[in-house]
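Record type: monomer structure entry
Structure origin: computed from sequence
Chain ID: A
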Amino acid sequence: MATVAVRKLRALVTHPVEILEDLLLEHRFIPSLTLGMISYYWSTLQISEILLPPSLGGRSYFLLNLLVSLGHLILTVLLIHLACWLVTRTQGGCSEILTLWGYTQLPWIILIALVGLFIVVHSLTAATEAGIVWVFSLAGAAFFLWLWGVILKLQALKICYALVGKSLLGVIGLALVLNGCLAWAERFFIAERGLVSQRALQAMDLTVDFLPVGRRNFALSFDTLTYHLRSPERGEVVAFLPPGRAGFVALVSDARLRSLGRIVGLPGETAEVRQGRVYIGTQMLEEPYLKGSSTLHMPPMTLAVDQFLILGDDRSLSPVDYGGGLIQEERIRGRLTDVGRLKWRFLVGRWPW
């Protein structure tokens, strides 16, 4: 069985048209859906956590994500079919492209597996030279897999819709626009990836182990849907816009810079920081998450009706270093969830929960 699978996989590289046509004739629908769910599982995991918070179902969102990733696959295919219909007015082809689309995601699944292997090996390898070899090898493999994935998708479109020339280019362009709109809506209303400074990560004890030296900003994923439904709450770790990055500029993909901190003071409260400990009125907050030496001092302040006091967990750092302090509610973009932390720990080689 394994030998047959390897032979099929090799043929999918050398003769993609023949293999895809055979898969379509054999009606390999269920395997395609399975591969599609696997390929979208990692990217949709946070959406499932947002839809089913841990307080309601523990970590059952890991199971819910099977349905969410399947829904994401179907929605992607429907948008591609819509693009084909708008360009060519072709009625058929939807079930055919759904039958093949999971197979076109194979390069992405292999790439995810290689990244995981890279992280494990890099964590066990102390030599810098070995790490550099792995980085260049992974970059070369990623380019090959990306090119292979593009070829498979183009061939699938040709087979299912008989697209050639200008009609093919038109469908590709429109499909990219439609899926881009979907990604933008998902990022704005449900979850987003923001770029957080290394200093802000240090303030929250989110360490950077082996990411590229000299890189100043690192990606974290945040839940944005929750704050469309309710106000931020004390104790939540949130991403917020740095000064001067409010309004439309915050929606531009090249302006995804975010600050990071924990909410310790709510609107209308009087807050003070003494030796790193936060006092609300005369009551000291219970803060089991504190890190480092507690040397921070901030005089008593009364928060306005739209202000939050946001600080890092390492109270030896000044809020100026990572953009914390008094923050307007309109600048708060989203919260860091368990899945966001899990993804971060995986990417820096600290995957134990």
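Annotation 1: The CA atoms of residues 48 and 272 lie 37 Å apart.
Annotation 2: The mean pLDDT is 84.
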